[in-house]
Amino acid sequence: MKKYASDAVLLLTATIWGIAFVAQRKGMESIDPMLFNGIRFTLGAIIVGLIALKANRKTAKIPFPWLLGITLTIASSFQQIGMVWTTAGNAGFITGLYIVFVPIIGIFRKQIISKTIWLAIVLAVIGLYLINVKQDINVSMGNLFVLVSAVFFAWHVQLVDKYTRMYDTLSLAFAQASFVAISSLLIGLIYHFYLKPDFLFTHEIYQSIGKAGIPLLYGGLFSAGIAYTLQVSAQKKVAPSAAAIILCLESVFALLGGWILLKEKITLTILLGAALLFTAMLFSIRSRFTN
Q: Which of 179 and 197 is assigned the larger pLDDT?
């Protein structure tokens, strides 16, 4: 069973991220994208840092993976900004398209993508489409922002594959969360200082953060903290394209989260799309252990 442990960890990561789409969308009702990201990644960095200290990891002495931090900052920022104008369902679908971009980037890294993996990717894309076929996906600024984020999330998956060979899990997770937290907070504060200074110097900021408290706690502790750490850990043993297939199941869990928490409807078409995604995941796992 140990050989499937990394796949189970990635599946858990996808579950956490899927539900996070609901939290992120709810958070946008009270607070702007950059401050939301800054606060949630600060919480994520704190929780990972505490775990690292308890494990006696000397994170401060490890070289900082700048490119990884910059890539995740751009990806999470574009996604969060895009969710101001688009729905959580659209964002989940478009973000899931990184499953296409990961192997394309992998080709430039001279990665060999098997026919089984390509078949799994095709099934996953069809599944993602069926899940969102009745969503109102218009050519809008919000969808464009989320599409850009999907490209950078794909690059992030590839970079995690690179950096996990160089650093230990907790150090890498702490470093990237800290970078995203600091950069997002700085951008958010600069934006408000020049365009909405009253927001920073009144009780409005505290009220807004309070209203977004539960989404921030979930997005910070579970999504930014635990899930990204699990991703880094699992990708030590799973190739980027195979990992992307499992991680794109976040779209399914986003739908389940919307159904349970927001009372959104699930149709037979959506269930068929989810079934195709799970089939793609099984193909991905089979490919890894039969080659």
A: 179
